[in-house]
Amino acid sequence: MSVDPGAERACTGNLLLSPSRDAPNRTSPNPFLDTRARVPARVSQALITGGAGFIGSHLSELLLSRGWHVHLLDDLSTGAMSNLRHLREDPRLTYTIDTCASSRVVSELVDDADVVYHLAAAVGVELIVESPVRTIETNVHCTEVVLEQAAKKRKPVLIASTSEVYGKSLALPFHEDGDLVMGATSKGRWSYACSKAIDEFLALAYWKERKLPTVVVRLFNTVGPRQTGQYGMVVPNFVRSALADRDLRVHGDGTQTRCFCHVSDVVVALADLMDDERHVGEVYNVGATEEVSIRDLAERVVALTESESEIVTVPYDEAYEEGFEDMMRRVPDTAKVEQALGWQTTRSLDDVLRDVIAFEKTRSVI
Question: What is the pTM of this model?
């Protein structure tokens, strides 16, 4: 992984790509791929904002395995360079430590990119509740900057959104064209959902008005190795508690359900959705459809880790804030992405949990 050691903010200079016999064929006359078609001798270059984060690090790994060059932009507010430790020797991976709120920085990096994956965002329920201003400003302003700079050079952009945008909707499973039902603005819980919905509106508006190729992906509880539990992510928190024989804290009564998708499956969809102009201007759900209650999830973790932990319930008001509202079910309809890509999940929930457990065991001895 290359970086200019003399740069105060760790900007790499290794962005001019040399021809490669292994470069993918990018000679399509497709206008969506025109930035690639002008440089068919080059290996493609991806810019990933939030690239040192959990999903960003796995997407980097996948794109590198496909012969891409990858440049990461991350301010390390929620990401970590340790997520990229296993990739640091690959010269095709470069990075800039800065914020994507900086138009100057984003403009320079977009110039050298063939495609942009905008993953940078405020994440995690705890962070959202504790820092609503940061959540809104990060999600909305950073997306504005990325789309504005990408539009100047017409570089395709994938916007990572969230299942949270469905809000309090009861129309399950959630369809991409379904109504979004938000809670009251007095409930800080919904600031994240609303800010990400604005991101989606903005991305689609850039496509309709300015012909910037954009794709929106709504992610449903992506989990796997390297995910931090620092901001309230339930699976790594449960696993770490179980391995330490600490109580597993289930918020509410534990009957709320979620669907957990392995990050390795998710990043395949992210990569493949940027390979064809037919996906431009579309919104896709990406996630697993195996539904599990949070109580049952805790029990599975305890069983798989052979832990002596107890499972305790904690009222929402105590876990987060007074009047906190949650969605009781969150289940995606994934027919659209399955039809578009032939994409399907390849790992069950138990597979996901075993991978996280194995990673956390390794992490605990490092």
Answer: 0.86
